[in-house]
């Protein structure tokens, strides 16, 4: 059995043009998930992890864990830094507290990334049920 490699990284989140464009159609669409349930990585970090474009990966922070699709960043090099667009998937791994400033911290979050071929990227509906619906 192959040992799974993990990489310690710094997570950034933020808006993207595609995230903003497709949320106007429907946050419950496949197109929204394809544009928001993703993580952009430095190509060299992808090699270190043995992952390819569109492979499922798990991002874990002290706040939670989420499975998203790996995307090769076109803004490389930025080793050790990953980016997940704003949305429900990013919310799984960011601090929900606002520390009295009205906005949670969405940048520079310590995280780990690993290949997760056995995991599924959940739809928005499934993610909400798993995260917020009791029982």
Description:
With 135 residues, the chain is α/β, with parallel strands linked by helices. The chain has one domain (6-132): Barwin-like endoglucanases. It has helices at residues 17-23, 30-36, 43-49, 88-91, 124-132; strands at 6-14, 38-41, 56-61, 64-72, 81-85, 107-115. A six-stranded mixed β-sheet has the order 2-4-3-6-1-5. A hairpin with a 2-residue loop joins strand 3 and strand 4 (64-72). Helix 1 (17-23) runs antiparallel to helix 2 (30-36). It is globular, with a radius of gyration of 14 Å. The model has no long low-confidence stretch (mean pLDDT 90).
Q: Poorly predicted ranges (pLDDT <50, ≥5 residues)?
A: none
Instruction: Name the CATH class.
Output: Mainly Beta
Mean pLDDT figure: 90
User: Could you give the count of β-strands?
Assistant: 6
Q: Major sheet: size, sense and barrel closure?
A: 6 strands, mixed
Percent helix, as a range, is: 25-40%
Query: Helix and strand succession?
Result: EHHEHEEEHEH
Widest sheet: strand ordering: 2-4-3-6-1-5
CATH architecture: Beta Barrel
Task: Describe the structure concisely.
By secondary structure, this protein is an alpha/beta fold. It has a single domain, classed as Barwin-like endoglucanases (Beta Barrel).
Summarize the topology.
Elements: E1 6-14, H1 17-23, H2 30-36, E2 38-41, H3 43-49, E3 56-61, E4 64-72, E5 81-85, H4 88-91, E6 107-115, H5 124-132
Parallel strand pairs: 1-5, 2-4
Antiparallel strand pairs: 1-6, 3-4, 3-6
Keywords:
135 residues; alpha/beta; Barwin-like endoglucanases; six-stranded mixed sheet; 5 helices; 25% helix; 31% strand
